[in-house]
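Archive entry. Fields below.
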Amino acid sequence: MSEKAIRVHDLGKEYRLGALSSGYRTLRDALAERAGQITGRAPKPSREILWALRHVSFEVERGQVLGVIGRNGAGKSTLLKILSRITEPTEGEAEIHGRVGSLLEVGTGFHPELTGRENIFLNGAILGMKRTEIAAKFDEIVEFAEVPKFIDTPVKRYSSGMYLRLAFAVAAHLEPEVLVVDEVLAVGDAEFQRKCLGKMSDVARQGRTVLFVSHNMSAVLRLTQETLVLDRGSLVLRAPTPQAVDYYMTSGLAQTGERRWATDEVPASARPFQPMALRVRDERGRIAERVPCTEPFSVEFEYELSEEITGLRIGVYLSTSRGEPVLTSFDTDEPRAFEQHLSRPAGRYISRCRIPANLLNEGLFVLGVNASSFRIRSYFTDEHALSISIDGTGAPGSHWPETRSGPLRPALAWEIGEAG
Amino acid sequence: MSTEATAPATLIRPSRGWSALNLRELWRYRELIFFLTWRDVMVRYKQTLLGAAWAILKPFLTMVIFYFVFDRLASVPTDGYPGPIFYFSGLLPWILFQEGVTKAGNSLVTGANLITKVYFPRLSIPLASVVSGLVDFGLSFIVLVGMMVVYGVPFSARLLTVPLFILLALVTALGVGLWVSAMNVTYRDVGHVVPFAVQAWMYASPIVYSVNLITDPLWRWVYGLNPVAGVVMGFRWAILGGTQFPAVLVLESAVVSLLLLASGALYFRRMERTFADVV
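PREDICTED_STRUCTURE:
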């Protein structure tokens, strides 16, 4: 089993920040720049350079399913884009043995005016399937997508669920030797996600090589044995998946107790919302990264609005280090609070919530935040903003030295009495 | 798939300077080119009320306008042919060129979601845009044949050369389209320039007038540098015949067309590697 499917050596990709943020240039800019260079008058344009990926080397054996995790901007997508030949590396090289299929998005090239049948052929061709291959799998695809009745209806009349199922069905029937998958599972309802995961593990069992990028830690844990951890463009760890996930959840989130956002860290699409900081404070108001489970603590999110926002709600997510959700709560959950803060004028705010004592089990938890107007717009989301560790000392039942399963360990009221 | 003993190896590394055209890869993706062309055609006809009728109405109404303005009002000579068929036989290859350039020019920008999500030879996108114009062309060609019958133009062996001029029109459109599409990705203002430039180009081509207006051989030679001139004149000759075949001019235009195509393809390939990052 020494056959290599993917060999990556010293791979790097550089982006010019100026070019990135403005997207495209106008001819006038380019001409002015040229003219300036010729006359020697204008200073050379000083563009900031960002290495989205640098000095990354690894190998993947044939038939291996390798996970890739990291924060947003760690270089995961860049890596996948280079391996699927969408973009070229700036340095280094990669060698891939076998046909590569990349799934960076489902439904690429779907056209709303075309029917389901037409889109299956079009999308299949775009993903690199032969016409005969698509025709042979056509029935299977339709069945998997559960849309046989609507196959000759334009997909613009599909519900979003049907659309997604059809899109994934085509992709799932692609049979390359090397499959590159990015966040495909982040969409769809729970039922659909289960189906996708099932299909993914089938693919893995068939002995194909898979590179799987996801934010969903439990999916990574379920599908892969080994995982790469990327951080700021570098490969920081390659380890068995449970170990890699632990590492990512702990040291990957270096700033415990407080997470601050710099202005340039926040995508422009968040405006007028600007997150400032997320903090965990213990009972005495000190910023803490470790809190005893027997004491309450508070989570505070500081943010600035450059304009008034109507219907804003700030959400806090709590999940385990494995990525399983524990709870979601919003600052305007209480109807009274909702009415009182229907609109928030420009300014700086803190939304604070209190997590009661004797609720969480010991272990590592991850806090996420979200700012949105319900069903109107999502301004900002960071699902892995901060990690916090809960100290189990003095927890209910701690006189028995054993670990308890489950993310919660609440102090419940028990009664013991004689039956009858 | 395990039956394949030796899996083909793909080497990914930064490329520098000018890269080869890699026509073999383009050929391997011929089905995709077919599907993209087919999509362009399907979508165009599905979204419109009159559907395929537009393919005929557009050149036909333009011809009617030309007839009133240039023939009846301005009396621009039409080499002795009835105005309508003279204009229509010039408009057909022109529209094939014009639509090709316009659609190919925008094709990469409108296809941005494909470029950033999947790999395939990028050349297939503008290529499909240009080729999809053939369907419209075919429909209005039927009208042209009808007009030939009405005006009593004899069907001669010259008609056999029609495909040659269609090919030349496609080559020219692709050549210009490749330049425009690649530039459009980086410099979005190219998109504003194209409609205007194309309109000016039409008047620089022998659509509403005959090239016989130019008698000075030097100026005729300069005129022939416009690749569309050769396409239009050759096509019109194949349909209407009559005058001598403008061999020198057509040959000259054909050479310019091929140069445009070659340079366009090379420029495209050079810019291609940054498409996904910039578009």
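CURATOR_NOTE: The longest strand of chain B covers residues 9-12.
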